[in-house]
Batch of 4 targets.
Target 1
Amino acid sequence: MKVKSIEHIGIAVEDLKEAVAAYAVMGMKTVSQEEVPDEKVRVAMLPVGSTRIELLEPTSEDSAVRRFLKNRGQGIHHIALRVEDIEGACEELRAAGLRVVYDEPRVGEGGAKVNFVHPASTHGVLIELREGTSED
Ligand code: CO
C-alpha cells in the first residue's frame, strides 16, 4: 500500500457553525461545506498548507460520529491518508489481518472513494483511506 500524504485530520464537533467560527479565529478559513449521506455527517473543510482540517458534525442519532461524541466527547476523530488503488490497499490490509471497516469503499467528502481502518488495528486511531480527490 502506498500512502501519498495526510489528506486531512477529522475533528468531531457538536456544533459545526460554532466550530467553523472558532477555527476562523485561528486563521483557518472554511472553503467548502457539504453533507456526506454515506457517513451521516455534515463536514466543513479548512485547508492548512498541503493538508486540511475536516470538522464533522453528525446529522443523525445513529451516525458513527454521534456515537464517538457520546463516548469520547469532541476531538480528533480520524486521520485521512491519500492512497493509490484503495481497493488493492484494503485487500492488502485485510490479508495482513487488519480490520477494514467497509467491504467496499463508500463515497466520502468531495466524491472521493473512502474506507476506514478500525482503531483496534491501528493502536487506537481511526484511519481513513481515500482515493480520488481533486488533487489526485
Ligand atoms: Co475524513
Target 2
Amino acid sequence: MNVLVFDTEEQIGIAAGYYMCGQVLQKPESVLGLATGSSPIRAYKHMISLYKQGAVDFSKVTTFNLDKYCRLDVKDKNSYHTFMYENLFNHINIPEENINFLNGNAWDLEKECKSYEDKIKAAGGIDIQLLGIGSNGHIAFNEPANAFQRWSHVVNLKESTIKDNSRFFDSVEDVPTQAVTMGIGSIMQAKRILIIALGEKKAKAIKQVIDGNVTPECPASILQFHKDVTLMLDKGAASLL
Ligand code: F6R
C-alpha cells in the first residue's frame, strides 16, 4: 500500500484531484468510481479547478457512484445524487448519460443491484475507485459483518454509521436506515483504489487497514489484498501508525 501523509486537508484535496485527473489524462474514456461524504469534497473541488483551467476534459468519462440511501428522494438535500451534482457534476463536462448511480428507490432493489454490476462490467470495469472510510472501517456501505458481501446489495446501516451521518440531517431520526451499495468484490475489481481519510476519528480504522488482520469486522482491511491502493491521510488519520 502506498501511504501518503499530508499536513493539511487542502493538500490532500490537491493531491487527490491531480491523481484522479491524471487517470483521465492518461485514458480520456476512464471509468471513475466515486464517493460522497466529507472526505472527497476537496478532491472534487480541485478536479473542477483543473477542468476550468482547461487542463482536463471529462467528456469521455463514465462514473459509477458507490452507494445511495434507500427511500430518499433524489432531490432531497441529503441525497447522494444532490451531493454529487453540487460538488462535481454541475461544474465539469461529464455527459449526463455517462453518470451512474444505484437507484435506492427501485421497486426491486435486488434486480437494481444486479443490473448495476452488469453496467459496470459493460463499461469495462472501474479504472480508479475513490473511497472514504467509515470510523468503523466500512467502505461504501459495506458495514462490519461476519462475512464480506461480494457484489452490490441492500444493507441495513449500523447505528454508528447512522450517528456519523446524522450531522448532515436535521435529526438522527431523519437518516435513512437502509442503503444500496457496491460490494467488496465490486470495489476490489477496480484497477486502482484511492482512499482519503481525515481526522483522528478514522485513525483506528486506518491502522487496521494497514497493519491489522484482514477481517469482515473491518471491511476496508480487505484492501491489503489489492495490488494498487493509495491512502492519502492527514496527521489525525495517520496518528496510530
Ligand atoms: C460514501 C461512502 C462512505 C463514506 C464514509 C466516510 O459514498 O461510501 O463509505 O466514504 O462513510 O464518510 P466521510 O467522508 O463523510 O467521513
Target 3
Amino acid sequence: MAIVITNGQIVSSKGIMVKDIRIVGEKIEDIGIDLVAPNDEIIDAKGFFVLPGGIDVHTHFEAEAGGMVADTFTTGTKAALVGGTTTIVDFAEQIKGGTLRRALEEWSKNATDKTYTDYGFHMTISDWNENTSKEMEEMVKEGITSFKMFFAYEDLKVDDGSIYEALKRAKELGTLIGFHCENGDIIDRLRKEAIAKGKLEPVYHMETRPPSLEREAIFRLITIAELADTPIYIVHLSSKEGYDEIIKARKKGMKILAETCPQYLLLDKDCYLSKGKNSFEGAKYVISPPLRDEESKKVLWQGIKDEEIDVVATDHCAFNYKKQKELGKDDFTKIPNGAPGVENRYKLIYTYGVTKNRITIERLVEILSENPAKIFGLYPKKGIIQKGSDADIIIFNPEAKSIIRAENQVQNVDYNLYEGLTQYGKFEYVF
Ligand code: URP
Ligand code: ZN
Ligand code: ZN
C-alpha cells in the first residue's frame, strides 16, 4: 500500500507542477499522472503547496546555561517538524584540548534515537592542531560534510593562521568550513570598556558588537580564503557592512556561500530598547551577531532575491528568559547568547517573503530546503520532490493565518522572538 498525494502544487526552485506523488515507505516511488492504485491512501492537496521538507542547517540543541537546558534534541526537533522542517544540522563542538571524535560521540549520544527529524552534524573546530587535521579526514570519510570555526567567543575562537591551515586542509579533503564572523578580540575590549563605565544593560550587547566588526572578520576571512583558494560558508550574516564585502569578493569570482536568519530579516536593534533602556526584556534578543538596523534588513532581503544569499537557517539556540537569560541581570556579558526559532522559520519566510512579494515560492523552497541540501551533501536524497528521493514532504495551506504566541509553541522555551506577529500558512501534513 502506498500514500498518493494528488492535486497539489509541487514546488521546486525550477517551478511548480501539479502531479501525483506516490510514496512507499520512506521514499518517493513515482511522480506522474493517475498514480493511484487500489488500496492506496489518497491525500487530496488541492489548493495547497506540496514542498520538500525544510532543512535547517543551523541549530544548537541542548545548549546549556546555568546547568540547565531548554530545548533538547527531542523537543527541538518536534518543534522543527511542527514548523515544516524535517531535517536539522546541529553543531558538535570540540572543546579546547579535546578532540573532534569526542565531540561527535557526545553529540551523537544526545541525538541518537531521540529526534523527530533526520539530523546531521557540522563539526566545530576550536582547537586546531595536527591531530585535528587528521581527524578532519576521518570525519569526512564517515560522512561529515562540513566544519565550523569562530572569529569570536573566548572558548571557541581560533587565530588566523589556524584558519588558513584548516581551509587548506578543507580544500584537500573537498569539504566546507562555515565561519562565525565577528572580531572577538575587539569585542572583548569593548565589553570591558562598557562594564568599566557601568553600562550593564542588554542594549550594550548590541553596542559592543558593531557591524564594522562583522565586516572586518568577513574581509579577513575572504583574504585568507583567497590565499587558501577554497570556498567558504558564512553563517548568520546580519549586516549590510558584511554583505557588501561578500558581494565584492563574489564579483572577483570567489566562491562564498552565505546564510542569514529570520531574526536579521524581521527584527532590528530597536528590540533592545522596546521596553526602555533599563528594562531587562532586551535580553531576549541577546544573540550574536546582534540585531542591526532597517537598512541591513532591506539589503539582506534583496540579497536573497538576487541569489547572493543562499540559505536561511535559524541559529536556534534556546535559553529561557527566566533563570537562564536572567543570569545576566546585572551584567549583559553574562547573558547566554542565543534565541529560539526552529519552529517559526518556514511560515515567517513565507509570510514576510512570499506574501510581501519580496521572493517567490520557488525561491523560498530554494533557500529553506534545496540549497541547504546541495551545500551540505544531502541532495537529491533531500531538498527536492522527485522520484527516488526521501519522502520528506510538507503540505502547506497558504490561506491559514495565526498569531505567534510563546504560550502555544512546541519549542521548549518561555518566550518567542516574534511574539504577536501574524503569520500565514498551516502544515496540513508533514511526512
Ligand atoms: O547567539 C548565538 N548565535 N548563539 C549561538 C552560537 C552562535 O554564535 O552561533
Ligand atoms: Zn555563530
Ligand atoms: Zn549558531
Target 4
Amino acid sequence: MMIIKLGGSALTIKDATEPTIDEVNLDRIAEELSYYSDDMVIVHGAGSYGHIHAKKYAIGDKITNAQENLYKIEGLSRTQASVQLLNYIVVTKLQQRGIPAIGVKPSSFIITENKRIAVCDTGIIERYINEGFVPVLYGDAVLDLNDDIKFAILSGDQIITYFANALKADKVILSSDVDGIYTDNPKTNPDAKLIDIVTKDTQLSLTENEDRADVTGGMAGKINELLELAENGIESLIINAETPGNLKKAVSGKEVKGTLIK
Ligand code: ADP
C-alpha cells in the first residue's frame, strides 16, 4: 500500500493572494498518477486554498473572548469550504484520468488534541481501499479537544504520518516543488545542496516559510513528521512533483531522485 502526498505548492500557486490552481501541473500530475498499480491513498496539501484563510483567521490560536470565538467560527467554516473545493477539483481531475478517486473530508472524522490527531476512525479509509477506490484526503481545518483553541489546522503531512502508521504503508512518497531536502532553502540560497538521506542526526537549516504564508510549518514541519515516521520503521521519500515523469516513476515502483528520510 502506497501513501502519496501531493504538495500544496505543486497543485496551487502558493504565493497567490487568492486561492489559485496550478492547472498545468495538476493535469500532468493526474495523468502521471494514473499509472499506479498498487493500493494507493492520496493526501494533498491545501496550498493557497488553505493558508490564506487559516492565516487571516489565525485558526489554532488561543481564543480569549466571545468576539474572537465568533471570528474563529467564521474562519473554520470558510477554510473548510475552501479546501473542500480544492479537493473537489483534484478528485474530478483524477477521475478524468481514470483513477477511482473518492474525496474524504478529514474534518468529518478526525479531531485533534493540541493540534495532533486524537480521534480518527481509519476503518472507512481501509474499506474504500479494499473496495478498489483511491481515497483522497487533504490538509483541513478541524475541531480540537483543547477548549482554549477549539479548532486547529491539520496538515496533510500529519495525515500522512498518521495513516502511514495506522495502515502500515509499504511506501510513503511526498511530492513538493523542490527536489527534496537541501542544506538550506534552495529557493533563497543558490548554494544549497540536495541531501540524499536525512536521519534524526542530520543538521539542517530549515526556514519556516513565513514569506510563503505556510501555516503548517513548511519543510521544517514536514521533516519533523517524517522523522517521527522513521522512528516507527517507515521510510519516506521526498520528490519533486514539478519534474515531469517523477510521479509516474514513483507510482510505478521505479527509482526517483529525491531525499530519503530514514
Ligand atoms: P508543500 O506545500 O509542497 O507540502 P511546503 O511549501 O510546505 O511544501 O515546503 C516546501 C518548500 O520548503 C520549498 O518550496 C522550499 O522553498 C522550502 N524549504 C525551506 N527550507 C528548505 C530546505 N532545507 N530544503 C528544501 N526546501 C526547503
